[in-house]
Amino acid sequence: MRKISVYILNQFLPLFLTIFFVISAIISLIYIITISNITSKIQITFIELLKFYILSMPQILLITLAISFFISAINLYSKLSETQELIALFSLGFKPKTLLNPILLLAILLTFINLFILFISIPYAKMNFNNLKNEKKQEAKFNFQSSQVSQQFGDWVIFANKGKNNSFTKIYLYSPKENKFIISQNAQLQNKNSVLNFALTIGNIYDFNKSMQIKFNKMEINQLIPKVKISIFNFKDYFKYNKKEFAKYLPIALLPITLFFFIPLISFFHPRLNKSHPLFYAITILSIYSIVSLSNKNFILSILISVLFFIIGGILYKWKVKF
């Protein structure tokens, strides 16, 4: 029995790795296109695009692991059916349950990994993804155009001539809130730890409320970029912030277990008596399951979807494939 389990795992792993790399490449391409659409209105470098992609990796990994496992398992058993190895094993007294056990253990392990990705990795990656996107949007807002009026930097209205590398000359700033007017010869705009820093050099401040003028050699105006901070230890806010992602991806995380009974239903067949199309059936079931899962935004409904597919698969398995 142990040798059979080792044999099945040895046949499964190469299939899984091959399918995993193919599917991950396809899903990665989809996510890169999605990132490009999200960031189409802001200017980003290749390194920043890479950061966005890395922060999308938990979702890519979750989807890829689940789909790769299901297709690989069906591919494995359908090949064993086509070569009549399954028939030979059944003739020797092996039950379907025994042949499925090694893949079932992998399904359970993979489900735990997926749940860790879903409830730990995805929330923190999403937080950093949104913070980075918000940071680039704020920088885009402060991408001042040369010699244009009504441009804003926080509470300040700005007019300036733009130089190179976020440097400016002949800067004029007015704050309606504080009723102050600033004239400066030079300025540099920088991002310092999520704070947009506008460093002015050589200029004057005119305070109309106090009727006073102040000369300065260097002055800084800071604009804080808002950031989201979440912690799993604050579970209520943590769940509330990530509720949509949990509802969306929970059925995908549970897919190796939820659709497990569909594996023998599709891939256990007699090659002479049945002309099966396992890949077609696998893609059909995956498509239906994915559409239903990813279109859902309710966490409780996500659990019900997973349980429903598991029960349907279990009933069909017990009816068609004898223990």
TrEMBL record:
Ranges annotated as spanning the membrane: 12-33, 53-78, 99-122, 246-266, 278-294, 300-319
Alphabetical UniProt keywords: Cell membrane, Membrane, Transmembrane, Transmembrane helix
Main location: membrane
Membrane topology type: Multi-pass membrane protein
Record Pfam families: LptF_LptG
Subcellular location: Cell membrane
GO CC annotations, alphabetized: ATP-binding cassette (ABC) transporter complex
Presence of keyword Chloroplast: no
InterPro entries: LptG/LptF_permease (IPR005495)
GO biological process: lipopolysaccharide transport
The keyword Glycoprotein belongs to this UniProt entry's keyword annotation: no
This protein's name: LptF/LptG family permease
